[in-house]
Design goal:
This protein is α/β, with parallel strands linked by helices. The chain is built from 9 helices and 7 strands, in the order E-H-E-H-E-H-E-H-E-H-H-E-H-H-H-E. Helix 4 links the parallel strand 4 and strand 5.
């Protein structure tokens, strides 16, 4: 007799921290539903990595900024085997610039993706989990803990994610839904590598541990919060930053 593997939905599974989280949760016994916005080839690469960890992977193209797209993504989940037990939201963007010269469009794009998109997913996830319980893990940032110059839009979006985490944790507790967030500092992802070398060196020098984090290090924390390993933890924002916010 085989035991049905639970489902973990990961928004942003095609790259970086989301891809590492998909592998980590597959290793922990989950099948993965990975949402991606546009890069199908990258999603297919994640599928191979998940399979290597013993999990099944279902890729879905979903635009988290679009309420209807998010609803459709959850509808597709109903046709899959397994109970939705974990939702991990790692999708996000940056469009840095000083507030005095930042366009409204640039501010709106970041907030709509990082905060509105997170809300759209959480709203439907909490409905889907209301009878079974489960865990939701949001992706914040140290920029949401302490706002950074040049990131008024990003810091505002991630500060909103922190407050959303705490509000949803209190709303979901009676239904057995736990909501937590991880707040990475500088991590070796496409976002960090897109900076020029001098900026990367300057930022790395600020980290007490003397190096940037790896996506796998953040993914291990996500796995902890997304599984029953953290069954008595909710409403927390866990900084994974090499000591920057210490």
């Amino acid at each position: 007799m085989t035991t049905e593997r639970p489902l973990a939905l990961i928004a942003g599974a095609s790259r970086g921290i989301g891809r590492a989280a998909a592998q980590e949760l597959a290793r922990a016994g989950y099948n993965i539903v990975g949402w991606y916005r546009s890069n199908e080839a990258a999603s297919e690469e994640t599928a191979k990595l998940v399979a290597a960890q013993g999990g099944q992977y279902t890729g879905m193209q979903v635009d988290v900024r679009d309420e209807d797209s998010v609803r459709d993504g959850f509808k597709q989940l109903r046709g899959l085997d397994g109970t939705l037990s974990s939702v991990v939201i790692t999708s996000g963007i940056t469009k840095d610039g000083l507030a005095a010269t930042m366009s409204t469009e640039k501010f709106r794009d970041v907030v709509e993706t990082n905060l509105f998109g997170t809300f759209y997913i959480c709203r439907t996830a909490m409905r889907a989990m209301r009878k079974t319980g489960g865990a939701i893990v949001l992706l914040s940032s140290t920029s949401g803990i302490s706002g950074q110059p040049g990131q008024a839009n990003y810091s505002a979006s991630k500060g909103g994610v922190n407050a959303l985490t705490q509000a949803l944790a209190k709303e979901g507790a009676a239904a057995g839904i736990r909501v937590n967030a991880v707040a990475p500092g500088f991590t070796d992802t496409d976002m960090f590598r897109s900076m020029d070398a001098a900026a990367r060196q300057r930022l790395t020098a600020q980290i007490p541990l003397g190096r940037v984090g790896e996506p796998e290090e953040v993914a291990r924390a996500i796995r902890f919060l997304a599984t029953d390993e953290s069954s008595y933890i909710t409403g927390q924002i866990l900084a994974i930053d090499g000591g920057i916010t210490a």
